[in-house]
Amino acid sequence: MLEWKGVMPAVTTKFTAEDELDLELFNKNITAQITAGVHGIILGGTLGEASTLTKPEKELLLKNTLNTVAGKVPVLLNIAEQTTKDAIAAAQNAEKNGAAGLMLLPPMRYKATDFETVTYFKAIANSTSLPIMIYNNPVDYKIMVTLEMFEDLQSCENIQAIKESTRDITNIIRIKNRFGDRYKVFTGVDTLGMESLAIGADGWVAGLVCAYPAETVAIYELVKAGKLSEALTIYKWFMPLLELDISPQLVQNIKLAELATGIGSEYVRAPRLPLQGKERERVQAIIAKAMENRPMLFNYKSL
Question: Which SMART domains does this entry report, sorted A to Z (predicted)?
C-alpha cells in the first residue's frame, strides 16, 4: 500500500553515449536511493526527461525499477500528456504494469481553464484505481490548481496527495487548514524543502536527492524528529546545490552532480545538451566546493 510520506526522488533517466537507456547505471542510482532510506521512487517527471521518452522506454523503466526495488518502496509514474485520451491510456498502462501510484500534471501545451483542468484530472482518476498525487506547479506549467479546484477534486477518493510547487510555502498551511488530512502535501521545490517540512508538509518530492540521497533523507528525518538544528547544518551546506534545481537546465545540473557522486552520468537526450562554457564551469565549481565540504551525517536512520 502506498503511504504518502517521506522523501520521493523524481529520478533522472540514465542514457548511454549512444542515446540508449543505461539501465545498469540507472539501477546503481536506484539502489543508492533505497540504501539511503527514500520512501518512494517517481519515474518520468521533468527530471526524468519524460517528454523525450518513448512509450516502450517508459514501460521498460517502470518494469526495471519494480524489479530493482523489489517491493522495498512504492514506484510511481508521472503522467504528462497532451490529450485526456493519452493520459488515461498512460494511467491504465501504468496500473497494468505494476505502478503503485501516479503523479499527475495538468494538460500539457494548452492553458486549460479551471473547469477543463478539473475535468481532466477527474477523467484520469476515474479510469484507474491507483492513488494519485496532483502536481501543482503554475510557475513552470502555467496552470494553478486552486483550493476551490481541490475542493471539487475531493469526490475522487484516489486523488490523495499534492506536490506543492507554487513557491509559496504558506499554501501548505492553507491546504492543511482547509482539508485537514484529506490530502497529503509534498513540497516540490528543493530550495524550500526544510521550511516546508517544518510547517507541516508530509514529504518532499526532491531533485538533488538524485545525487545526494542520504543528505536529503537525513534532513527529512531530522525535521520530523524535531532536531531542527541538526537538519539546518546539513541544509545550509546543501543550499548552493539545491539552487541548481530551480533552473531551466536543472536536468543537466543535477546530472553533473550525479556524475560527481558516482551514481550517474551527464548524458542527456537532445534537444537538451550537456552544459557548456562559463555556465558549466560555474555549476562544476558549486559541486566541487560542496564535495570538498560534504558534511558528516547524523545517524538519521535510528531516529
Answer: DHDPS
Q: Which residues contact 283 (CB under 8 A, 6 or more apart)?
A: 244, 252, 253, 256, 275
CATH placement of domain 6-302:
3.20.20.70
Would you say 209 is a known binding-site residue? no
Q: State the pTM of this model.
A: 0.97
Q: What is the rounded distance in angstroms from the CA atom of residue 84 to the CA atom of residue 119?
A: 9
**pLDDT tens digit sequence for 218-252:** 999 999 999 999 999 999 999 999 999 999 999 99
Which positions are catalytic?
A: 135, 163
